[in-house]
Amino acid sequence: MDRATVAAHPRLDVCHHRSSALLTLHSPFARKLGAFVALTSEEMAALDRLHGRRKTFPARRDMVHQGMTNQSCYILASGWVCSYKLLSGGTRQIVDFQIPGDFLGLRSVLFRTADHNIEPVTKVEASEVLAGDLLDTFSKTPRLATAVLWAASRDEAMVVEHLVGIGRRDARERTAHFLLELGARLKLVGLGTASGFACPLSQYMLGDALGMSAVHVNRVLRELREGGLVTFQRGQVEIHDLDALVALADFDKSYLDHDGPLLK
Amino acid sequence: MDRATVAAHPRLDVCHHRSSALLTLHSPFARKLGAFVALTSEEMAALDRLHGRRKTFPARRDMVHQGMTNQSCYILASGWVCSYKLLSGGTRQIVDFQIPGDFLGLRSVLFRTADHNIEPVTKVEASEVLAGDLLDTFSKTPRLATAVLWAASRDEAMVVEHLVGIGRRDARERTAHFLLELGARLKLVGLGTASGFACPLSQYMLGDALGMSAVHVNRVLRELREGGLVTFQRGQVEIHDLDALVALADFDKSYLDHDGPLLK
DNA sequence: CGCTGTATTGAGGCTCCTCAATCCAGGTGG
DNA sequence: CCACCTGGATTGAGGAGCCTCAATACAGCG
């Protein structure tokens, strides 16, 4: 994997989104959008201007909760957050986790009121994106609107995969799939390797994400550990038998990754 | 709820998307986008041009299946379709049903290869939208890109609600929620009333959508029927006690509907 | 050094599944 | 016009998976 040299014409820089030196000068978010739409330097600059105030949020205190109106959205710089919905019974379902480079709260902005809660799992740093700025940018830089549509579709694909898992995979398969997906995403932003990653999630959170009880999560993790597949202890996930895990989970990462920008 | 008269300036026509006579001249799809972004007549025209060949598909034969490349997407004119994913074990999970006016296959176009299957539930008529036309339209008519982003986000909200249901609602609640959501969507496009709607889905399909077995669907439907809540027989859903059903399902339809366009 | 949140393990029970039989309606061919 | 066929709906019986409750073990922290 040789690094491409920075070409004169910026369009060419992003033909292979993971190999452009120039891109690493921009935010991980810009790098992500560059995977979908080959961005010009103007578009890159517009993206950079989008980043508003840098804000810090403490762990465990909701950044956004259901029903709030006129929210901003955020681009996550460091830390993990989760998006979840509360049910009347007091239970919750975690829809997704966001890791550095992810966009969050887009739906809360597009609809005027938030339809889900956003809670930092750890201490979080994020750039605020004002709703007005976002919509202005879309009208002035239409290709960015398309790029964000693309990114949103990738997020939707993840939610769909999550739905499939909860609907049709049993607890072991579902857990395996979840860990593999998380690992693949973290690897894409340089926060993990093929053999493992740091993971700040508690078994309660895993349970709320996987649609099962924390107790059962514990039993499943033990089974996976005793089967020599994967270990999740003390905030660290170690993948011991990737192939077996992939086979168990029926994991296909194609929905997470692309070879290059789809729109030239 | 008085009907607004058709104003001279088209921008104003769509302030209340369900009350504009002019809009009914356009496709249901245009009406839906108009709920998000107040469309000018030029934008409307661009939307109309998007509709390509009208195609017919027989029931039960996949229109698109996983892995196909270079797909078109479609705007559904009549009939029902479902989007589903197959698992290695031979089971499937239905992610969503599409009804007239819905856009389908957007993700299959944005990514170059389809990540899910699309199967007509009934005989279907749909306008083909070519991938190139779609992207061209986005660049020439940027507000339409934003509008489609909005519509895609609404779809995502539905998938999220579906995920929450499968993860954290039991079979009765889930089924009730599903029927309510379907009813609300059909009502929005004039295919149902508050008291019921025609529904071509078999109990097998319901099971694949709700993440349960067809046998259990049957038992749950019986319970709901015997409880006087709702009857689903011979392709017809009759809602007998809407309030009780809403309470049971913890149903909040705000994610389906909006008061008016969000972007003026 | 107790407090608090998390992890771990056991016991018992409920939900939902699978397998299997029966019933019913619509369509088809004789 | 009826026997047959097919796909869906319905019901029963037994079992697997996951849940809840509850106890105990840990680890970090003020």
Automatic annotation (TrEMBL), chains A, B:
TM ranges: none
Residues annotated as signal peptide: none
Domain HTH crp-type stretches: 169-243
Annotated GO MF terms: DNA binding
Pfam families assigned: cNMP_binding (PF00027), HTH_Crp_2 (PF13545)
CDD domains per record: CAP_ED
Keyword set, alphabetical order: DNA-binding, Transcription, Transcription regulation
Biological processes per GO annotation: regulation of DNA-templated transcription
Protein name: Crp/Fnr family transcriptional regulator
Source organism of the structure: Fertoeibacter niger
